[in-house]
Amino acid sequence: MTTEIESVLVENRVFPPFANLVKDANISGMEGYRALCDEAERSPLEFWGRLARENLVWDKPFATVLDESQAPFYKWFADGEMNVSANCLDRHLNTPTANKTAIIFEADDGQVEHVSYKQLHARVCEFANGIKALGYKAGQRAVIYMPMSVEAVVAMQACARLGIIHSVVFGGFSSKSLHERIVDVGAVLVITADEQVRGGKKIPLKPAVDEALTMGSCEAVSHVIVYRRTGGKVAWQEGRDLWMHDVTAKQPSTCAPVSLSGEHPLFILYTSGSTGKPKGVQHATAGFLLWSLLTMKWTFDAKDSDVYWCTADVGWVTGHTYVAYGPLAAGVTQVVFEGTPTYPDVGRFWDMIERHKVSVFYTAPTAIRSLTKAAEAAPQFHPREYDLSSLRILGSVGEPINPEAWMWYYTHVGREHCPVLDTWWQTETGAHMISPLPGVTPLKPGSCTLPLPGIAAAVVDEAGDDVERGTGGFLVMKRPWPAMVRTIWGDPERFKKSYFPPELKGYYLAGDGAQRDTDGYFWIMGRIDDVLNVSGHRLGTMEVESALVSHELVAEAAVVGRPDATTGEAIVAFVVLKRSLPEGAEAKAIAKQLRDWVSKEIGPIAKPKDIRFGENLPKTRSGKIMRRLLRVVAKGEKVTQDVSTLENPQILDQLSQSV
Ligand code: WT7
């Protein structure tokens, strides 16, 4: 841990909540918010117990809200029984929602398909029956490696219906990353597609699965179920490979949901930590769904009339909470989009909002920043050229949103009548933690504002004591909450070490630096560990380093982040080769080779933007790489720090040269 936190900007603009939203909001006015916070403060367990009873459909009511006996392995609603899929689909069947559109799917090429709640329920049941017929059952693990599609949601929901624990792997990850996850999670089933389509291009998926399964230790996988998206040619292993449409064919369109303990693992999602191997963040049935649904109602103020669109891929946690589960439990109509924001043109998002009359829109700062640039270059695709009057709420997630991007989003997309909700949360927190509420919170561009009711967020020092307002420190949660990570799959020790370090009084350590201003607003200042945030995607520096050093030319590598106007952070890699220092065209060629290598090892998102070669890395006399200096060099700044402890100061000049 380091307290080396960069200074936070000063932002004085305040935007009070809009009267129309305050009037109709699910949580109305600061009094409404305070009342809930006070209730949670007085008795957290009664608060969470009440909400769980009122918002979830239970097969067997719980008697115990929270079991702290094994803390920090907290158990929520463990003696209650329910099913997540039943809570997302069956609960709507005998209501007017049954015939309402659950998903408006828009394909990359613009084709649109509407699926009602009733139809989605039937498709989930048919697929669940299909995998049940193959012998799969509760507690087993399935890896899902699919494009954004109705079928991906069906696959996740079908697993949840049977208690099969899914682990979705983002379609942009390489076969090697996929293999690592299949093995770590102990998958018995893989669900994929022949190809995915993005930006007018077909990108194969099935070959990556085929390759991953030849890499060893995957004997437990007995089937690969393939959704036929494009009809592209795929290799086929008889007996192992099955088409999704064959698995569902002739299956009945009802399937009894399996009653599961509130603590039954719902999914495992891999994310980066500060050491080499990605961590399998495990979430549990009841707590995860409760918080997904409540934050839909509270943060997004979900209403029956909403058309909601979260642009995240189901490969990330945002696509779990706010595509596959939360919106369905809330019974809203949601847009699921296969493609990219820039195809066929950079107005795609605005055009879709106009055509589908989207009212709640949730995306990432990196998308906002790149669309800002794009709209300047191509004014005909500027959001002002579209009818965006259906919008009432805008959301942002994944990284700090800088005030410029916030203002552009607010002014040009929201036309100054939609709040911009900067939602802070993590894979580990399951759902929103610190966020404005549309009918409550005065907004300050760049701040995620205040904790949601029930969330005991605080900023503390190394001893776990609260720091004064205006002082930076570690962002922690002082009390457990239902949607929290339960463990790291297969590595409970790492769970304890990463999130509950003993010096912090048993608080949950988020891994972000933060500061509160005099109004108590939270300002997130970035990670305190070696985790990078590139376009809202989390990457460990060690992961990228291990990929680099596994290349035959590389002796040593150090990776740091550099602020980037579009992607938030960009990866800069400092590389020592086993051969002499390359120059000119040769250096360029090797850099390209290494970039492609990382892309193959991890995935294109991990490609270093900048590669610098040196004969060595800056090290202390004890041999420790001085990353602090590398961060300065990466930014192109002059090193003003004391370098007297450095073994080899002249190396810094070499490493200042971009290839
Ligand atoms: C990390 C979590 C949350 C779902 C997507 C990312 C950063 C996330 C914000 C925000 C500032 C943010 C943090 C956090 N982050 N949202 N609104 N403001 N930083 O989930 O991949 O688990 O990454 O993303 O650093 O720790 P994730």
From TrEMBL:
Sites of N6-acetyllysine modification: 624
Superkingdom in the source lineage: Bacteria
Any Gene Ontology biological process: acetyl-CoA biosynthetic process from acetate
Location of the AMP-dependent synthetase/ligase domain: 97-481
Pfam families: ACAS_N, AMP-binding, AMP-binding_C
Annotated ranges, domain Acetyl-coenzyme A synthetase N-terminal: 33-88
Coiled coil: none
Chain sites annotated for binding CoA: 198-201, 318, 535
Swiss-Prot/TrEMBL cofactor(s): Mg(2+)
Enzyme class label: ligase
Keyword entries, A-Z: Acetylation, ATP-binding, Ligase, Magnesium, Metal-binding, Nucleotide-binding
SUPFAM superfamilies assigned: Acetyl-CoA synthetase-like (SSF56801)
Domain called AMP-binding enzyme C-terminal: residue spans: 543-624
A GO MF label: ATP binding
Post-translational modification: Acetylated. Deacetylation by the SIR2-homolog deacetylase activates the enzyme.
Catalytic activity from the UniProt record: acetate + ATP + CoA = acetyl-CoA + AMP + diphosphate
Enzyme Commission code: 6.2.1.1
The keyword Ligase belongs to this UniProt entry's keyword annotation: yes
Entry's Gene Ontology cellular component terms: cytosol
Binding residue positions for ATP: 398-400, 422-427, 512, 527, 538
Record-listed Mg(2+) binding positions: 549, 551, 554
PROSITE patterns in the record: AMP_BINDING
InterPro entries on file: Ac_CoA_lig, ACAS_N, AMP-bd_C, AMP-bd_C_sf, AMP-binding_CS, AMP-dep_synth/lig_dom, ANL_N_sf
Family: Belongs to the ATP-dependent AMP-binding enzyme family.
PANTHER family to which the protein is assigned, alphabetical: ACETYL-COENZYME A SYNTHETASE, ACETYL-COENZYME A SYNTHETASE 1
Protein name per Swiss-Prot or TrEMBL: Acetyl-coenzyme A synthetase
Native organism: Paralcaligenes ureilyticus
Gene: acsA
